[in-house]
């Protein structure tokens, strides 16, 4: 089986979400080039079929309405007790606290770095990824190509689903450590989004924080600018139209802002591996936690997104 199958069944049909898993698993260096929106074959394929097996979009998820938020062992509102991390965090800094635990345990962390407000994929081994959210998408999993040490992955649902397929395949199983997902409704094209925000008075150079809250994108900096997310529709990345996952169902731990107070992260612990890592943060005093029993906004958003992508009436 060759790359042509991926080209025909996924990429050519507009089903690729640019996670990078196919490049991450390909045994040959520089065989596939990862572009911003899809991979491209650039050398002669040896037809091992691994990229096809690793692609999470070969079999898109079918919405059944059961357990819309996905597997859940426990849920919390949590925040880091490290005031420096908290100062840079999007919500409660739990993603950063987990990244810190990964480095302490000798694992790498695959996450985004920042070039100003531009997201740049990076595998971190000696420093933490910067805190805060960038509302644009970049492929991540191609950076797992040829890695030997286990890597914890922090990414959007498209990344976490690709990471889960890699974690289940013998060729890449050992490369993947904990999978940490960030809830996601949609992302935006970097240049077009900033052009629109700058028309409204935002400044990319001086902006310090961006958030989407109560239906508005808020840019805080020298001045604070906020725009209704509906106005950002023309600059949205088209992937949300085919994406069926808001809540990072395949992650070990999913993190978001909804359903928790400002300054706290909503934590959905999904697997035993996730539980072990999160419990370690709690017992070391790295995070404060309050259990949550109800996640109404996350449930609503995940249901809406899945029904839309799966064309459920
Ligand atoms: C594009 C996007 C859309 C989101 N949409 C929602 C939403 O609709 N509802 C909701 O409740 N939560 C959403 N989130 C999650 C939320 O913004 C926080 O990321 C989450 O609550 C964790 O916060 P924290 O303070 O624990 O993370 P922090 O400790 O601040 O760490 C943030 C981590 O996010 C990673 N990151 C930042 N931007 C990206 C990116 N573009 N792609 C991959 N990784 C990234 C960084 O590498 C870092 O590791 C979204 C996040 C992103 C990036
Ligand atoms: S993973 Fe295998 S089938 Fe896919 S492009 Fe690489 S060599 Fe070809
Ligand atoms: S593995 Fe990811 S990047 Fe590769 S074709 Fe599938 S969805 Fe696209
Ligand atoms: S909507 Fe979010 S999770 Fe889905 S493919 Fe786009 S960036 Fe990834």
Fold blueprint:
Elements: H1 3-11, H2 21-25, E1 32-34, E2 39-41, H3 50-54, E3 74-80, H4 83-88, H5 94-104, E4 108-115, E5 118-124, E6 151-155, H6 157-168, E7 176-182, H7 190-199, E8 209-213, E9 216-220, E10 225-228, E11 253-256, E12 265-269, H8 272-283, E13 287-291, H9 296-309
The structure holds flavin-adenine dinucleotide and iron/sulfur cluster (3 copies).
Description:
The structure is a single chain. The strands form 3 sheets. Strands 5-4-6-7-11-12-3-13 form an 8-stranded mixed beta sheet, sandwiched between helices. A 3-stranded antiparallel beta sheet has the order 8-9-10, with no helix packed on it. The protein has 3 domains: 3-54, no CATH class; 74-187 and 237-309, no CATH class; 190-235, Nuclear Transport Factor 2, Chain: A (Roll), CATH 3.10.450. The longest helix is centred in the last third of the chain and has 14 residues, at 296-309. A hairpin with a 2-residue loop joins strand 8 (209-213) and strand 9. The mean pLDDT is 93. It has helices at 3-11, 21-25, 50-54, 83-88, 94-104, 157-168, 190-199, 272-283, 296-309, and strands at 32-34, 39-41, 74-80, 108-115, 118-124, 151-155, 176-182, 209-213, 216-220, 225-228, 253-256, 265-269, 287-291. The chain has 9 helices and 13 strands. By secondary structure, the protein is an alpha+beta fold. The protein is globular, with a radius of gyration of 19 Å. It binds flavin-adenine dinucleotide and iron/sulfur cluster (3 copies). One iron/sulfur cluster binds at residues 6, 10-11, 16-22, 38-39, 54-55, 57, 162.
């Amino acid at each position: 089986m060759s790359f042509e199958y991926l080209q025909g069944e996924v990429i050519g049909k507009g089903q690729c979400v640019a996670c990078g898993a196919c490049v991450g698993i390909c045994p040959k260096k520089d065989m596939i080039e990862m572009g911003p929106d899809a991979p491209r074959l650039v050398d002669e394929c040896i037809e091992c079929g691994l990229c096809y097996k690793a692609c999470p979009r070969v079999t898109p998820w079918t919405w059944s309405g059961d357990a819309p938020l996905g597997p859940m062992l426990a849920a919390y509102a949590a925040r880091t007790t490290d005031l420096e991390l908290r100062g840079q965090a999007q919500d409660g800094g739990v993603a950063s606290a987990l990244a810190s635990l990964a480095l302490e345990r000798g694992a790498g962390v695959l996450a985004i770095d920042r070039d100003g407000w531009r997201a740049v994929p990076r595998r971190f081994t000696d420093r933490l990824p910067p805190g805060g959210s960038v509302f644009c998408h970049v492929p991540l999993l191609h950076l797992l190509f040829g890695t030997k040490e286990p890597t914890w992955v922090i990414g959007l649902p498209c990344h976490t689903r690709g990471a889960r397929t890699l974690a289940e395949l013998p060729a890449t199983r050992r490369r993947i450590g904990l999978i940490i997902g960030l809830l996601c409704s949609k992302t935006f094209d970097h240049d077009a989004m900033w052009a629109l925000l700058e028309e409204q008075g935002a400044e990319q150079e001086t902006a310090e924080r961006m958030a989407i809250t109560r239906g508005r994108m808020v840019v805080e900096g020298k001045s604070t600018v906020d725009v209704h997310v509906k106005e950002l529709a023309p600059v949205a990345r088209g992937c949300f139209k085919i994406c069926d996952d808001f809540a990072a169902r395949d992650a070990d731990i999913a993190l978001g802002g909804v359903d928790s107070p400002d300054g706290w992260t909503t934590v959905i612990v999904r697997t035993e591996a996730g539980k072990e890592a999160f419990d370690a943060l709690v017992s070391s005093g790295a995070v404060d936690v309050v259990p949550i029993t109800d996640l109404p906004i996350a449930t609503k958003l995940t249901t809406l997104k899945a029904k839309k992508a799966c064309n459920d009436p």
